[in-house]
Design a protein that fits this description.
This protein has 170 residues and is mainly α. The chain has six helices and two strands.
């Protein structure tokens, strides 16, 4: 009887760690939408050296949203939307970035870069982990593509952070 109880607990834990593909896509769309809004709102608040970067990031995050929406609305994957996908262990870290921090009307460039770095890192990890648990096909391909894109964003932000810190901008 204890074996049955252990098996039931294990099955429950696995089910709890799953979401439907549609839920995952909706969460990712919310993440990308708020990321685009975050960067767009910063464009006129950051120092001149960061304006172009946050403008580019706003456009790229809006494109990521569009890619997720197109995938979700693609009739070829409609049958997969209700299917379960293993949720990465860091899912809660990703989800917390849907809510944006209040950086005030005159945010510090260093604080912006630190937050943006952590946000891009969470996205890259989430998409990379999701690619590992998603069957081959367009969904996995999109997760792999976006994991790479978010890593590129992070690398550019790290470069700008290094320049800011070492130029005496802090």
């Amino acid at each position: 009887m204890s074996e049955h109880g252990e098996g039931h607990k294990g099955a429950h834990a696995r089910l709890k760690a799953m979401k439907s593909l549609e839920e995952i896509l909706e969460t990712a769309m919310s993440f990308e939408e708020t990321a685009g809004a975050f960067y767009a709102a910063l464009k006129d608040k950051v120092g001149k050296p960061l304006r172009e970067l946050v403008g580019e990031l706003a456009l790229e995050e809006a494109e990521h949203y569009r890619l997720f929406k197109a995938l979700r609305d693609n009739p070829d994957i409609a049958g997969q939307l209700s299917g379960g996908v293993q949720v990465p262990a860091e899912d809660h870290n990703f989800s917390k970035y849907i809510l944006l921090p209040d950086l005030g009307s005159d945010p510090d460039d260093q604080a912006i870069l630190q937050y943006a770095l952590s946000r891009e890192d969470a996205a890259a990890r989430q998409y990379g982990d999701l690619a590992q648990t998603t069957p081959e096909g367009p969904v996995r391909d999109l997760f792999l593509f976006l994991a790479k894109e978010e890593l590129e964003h992070k690398a550019e932000l790290e470069k700008r952070y290094y320049e800011l810190v070492h130029s005496g901008g802090v």
